[in-house]
Amino acid sequence: MKVITTWTVKPGAIREAVSRFLAGQGAPGEGVALLGRWHSIDLSVGFSLFESDDPAALYRSATRWSDVMDLKTTVVVEDDVAGPALASVYKP
After folding, report:
1. Residue 92 scores a pLDDT above 80
2. Cβ atoms within 10 Å of 88's Cβ, excluding its own
3. 3-class DSSP state for residue 71?
């Protein structure tokens, strides 16, 4: 499954978050693949796209940043999945 995590750095934690990221600690843990990561140009928010079939692995990865970031993770599907599901409910 694919998940998007939206993250914001907690007040007062920017130096610690940047330090970890620059030290190479931004990679996800075992069992989670990072497909992409985007940072807003004003440093207010960021987005990471992950893939994993292991919710526990996703949880473990999140716990490594939860002290310095507020995280919101959402399971997502692509158009080829959403289209048929919508068509089965909202028949024209």
Report:
1. no
2. 8
3. strand
Three-class HEC string of 16-53: HHHHHHHCCCCCCCCCCEEEEEEECCCCCCEEEEEECC
Question: Terminus-to-terminus CA distance in the chain, angstroms?
Answer: 29
* Residue 73 DSSP one-character state: E
**Residue keyed to tokens 């292991």:** 54
The domain segmentation of the chain, as residue ranges, is 2-89
pLDDT, tens only, 4-61: 999 999 999 999 999 999 999 999 999 999 999 999 999 899 999 999 999 999 999 9
Tell me, yes or no, if the pTM score tops 0.90: no
Type of residue numbered 82: A
Taking the domain 2-89, which CATH number applies? 3.30.70
